[in-house]
Amino acid sequence: MPAPTLFDMLLRSSLDYAEQTAFIYRAANSEFDVSYQKLFDDALILAKAFKARKVGKGSKVMLLSDNRYGWIVTDFALLSLGAISVPRGSDTPTRELEFILQHAQCEFLVIETEQLLKAHEEMLKGLKNLQAIFVIEGGKTHRWFDNIYSYNDILKDRSISKADTDHFIAQRYAITLDDTFTLIYTSGTTGTPKGVILTHRNIMYNVRTLPGLIELEETDRWVSILPSWHIFERASEYLALSKGCCTVYSTVKTFAADLERYQPTLVATVPRLWESMHNKINTTLEKQEPRKAKIFKKLIKISAGYNYQQRVFRNHLPVFEKISRLRRGRQKLQAGFLLLLLAPLNLLAKKKLQLVQEKFGGRLRMAISGGGSLPPYLDEWIDAIGIRIVNAYGMTECAPAIAGRALNCEIFGTLGPPTRGTNLRIVGEEGLFLPAGKVGEIQLRGEQVFPGYYDNAEENRKAFTEDGFFKTGDLGKLTLTGELVITGRSKEIIVLASGENIDPSRIEAAITQLPFVSDAVLVGQDKKGLGALIVPDFEQLRDFVSSKFERSTATMEHLLKDKQVLDRVKAEINRMLHPKKGFKPFEKLQNIHFLEKEFKPGEELTNTLKKKRHVIETKYREVIGKLLK
Q1: Can you list the positions of beta strands (E) in 240-333?
Q2: Are β-strands 148-150 and 132-137 bridged in parallel, bridged antiparallel, or unpaired?
Q3: Strand, helix or coil at 600?
């Protein structure tokens, strides 16, 4: 038999772990446990209903829904038919949704609720290519329009014959590793979403490679909070299913409580969640018992200090250039002495910090952080508490794994080595391959790398080198022992701490429509929200201030730092970044800063006047840090 596809994997797990719990979820104030057998049955019944309505191999099906059990059942059913899912979250603006439906040439739409259907109803009426619309959560909708069905409409007959089962399983032979299983649209540098083609080969590389790196077992339990359509969460759920694990669907509101209730052994998170947990714990302590807050911070400092010295002693810190044996010996000797001094205090600190681990359920053996690089202070804080954190690096284009500091790597402060079979290199501006310690673009080749963007020849030419390496657009460097460290982004996409991908060019284009804005640079990489560095047109800005405040400001310096002016300009900008104009809630600005100097060619600008984002972010690092605390 040929190498297994994703559908093969789901079939095998459904049979091997039939009686075990695959998912736990809540709906209508009730909790439901779903076995692997029920997952199999539900997917089979839905696939049969889809097929009866002409969904088949190669059909493109938009799946517009947030996390729910119905999402994974729909995904499983579409996989069985060889259909191609085109997933998005419910917050997708109508204009963007319309573009994706048309560009991907979607023939079918699966939408989460009747309310969501109504929100996009006018746009959907104009799409002639849609053969049918399916509503996951809805009443009998088929009476509205001939091509709209609720799952309640199409799933009345839940009988499964032996012939149904045999036919469902036999569909595996019609699917190959190089078939496309999904088309995920991400933000492009021009503001137009790009459709990432992912094949069974791409995702199965992840399913085969990653479980061993985290020693995944069927006894493991995950708590899920990230969007299922996001490739990081989606891959995590596939990994869990591949090993017979249980996944608990949680929400932002219930996440903290669910950690204590369900006691997971693993969580897949983004930096924003850890930041929230960090702030919540510290703020609660400071408000309730300031003295305990001081003690807690001291315990963290002791634990982090001990861990650091231990890594110095064990050679577990990144090294970018050769160090003499004499110098290395001195470092280890000093670290050994400090470890002896800190040992009693560290023993006490670790014992006390076990109480914090109970907030995570007490069984958490590992947390995987992706969707943006984990800030060093959070990396150290989580480590000090005693939780093993896997700081991972991936992209939608790689389904998503590129590198990760998993159980095969002890070098702290890095993203670990590239995953097995990944050929990764660092390339300089002149196209030269750079040695360890030198910063350049990260390029890679491997089974996980996508074949290209859907119907986008121009982006495909830009995305790959002549020898077939994918150009990530990220800047990084390698240690002497081969671990990866991200240093910045040469491409324009910004990834927030929550994992949201944002194309800055669209927002900057909107901002510069204001007469008093000469130029703008969006910032917010790995932060909670967005900020903007603004080069103002001073005279236009002064006129704006006079019209809004009925006063004039004598000096430019005072004007650029006036809080009332900053707040009013920010409000004007955010008025332009409204959802009705195609922007998402998280694309509004949290803060702005006026720059006193214009960007110059050869410095912040290229000779063709394109912004060098990594240069600007480096130059104004302190400003950005204060802007987005």
Answers
A1: 246-249, 266-269
A2: parallel
A3: coil
Upstream peptide bond of 400 is cis (omega within 30 degrees of 0)? yes
Whether residue 453 is predicted with pLDDT greater than 90 in this model: the reply is yes
pLDDT at 607: 43
Measure the CA–CA gap between 182 and 575, rounded to whole angstroms: 35
Mean pLDDT, residues 51-78: 96
DSSP-assigned beta bridge partners for residue 427: 433, 441
What tokens appear for 83 in the block? Answer: 């259909």
Q: Within a 13 Å sphere around the CA of 350, how many CA atoms are in the beta-carbon half? A: 14
Category of 474 on φ-ψ map: left (φ > 0), alpha (ψ -120 to 50) or beta? beta
| CB neighbours of residue 83 within 10 Å | 25
DSSP three-state, residue 367? strand
Q: What is the DSSP string of 379-403?
A: HHHHHHHT--EEEEEE-GGGSSEEE
Tell me phi and psi for residue 499, to 5 degrees: 95, 0
pLDDT at residue 190, rounded to an integer: 43
Q: CA–CA separation, 270 vs 268, rounded Å?
A: 7
- The tens digit of pLDDT for each residue in 221-248 reads 999 988 888 899 999 999 999 999 999 9
Q: How many CA atoms lie within 13 A of 264 on its CB side?
A: 29
* CA dist., res. 393 & res. 484, Å (int): 9
Q: What are phi and psi of 140, to 5 degrees?
A: -80, 95
Residue type, 183: L
26: enclosing H helix or E strand? strand 21-27
For residue range 123-169, what is the model confidence (pLDDT) as tens digits?
Answer: 999 998 999 999 999 876 565 557 899 998 899 888 999 999 999 99
Predicted confidence band of residue 2 (pLDDT cuts 50, 70, 90)? low
d(CA 305, CA 312): 11
pLDDT value at 469 more than 60: yes
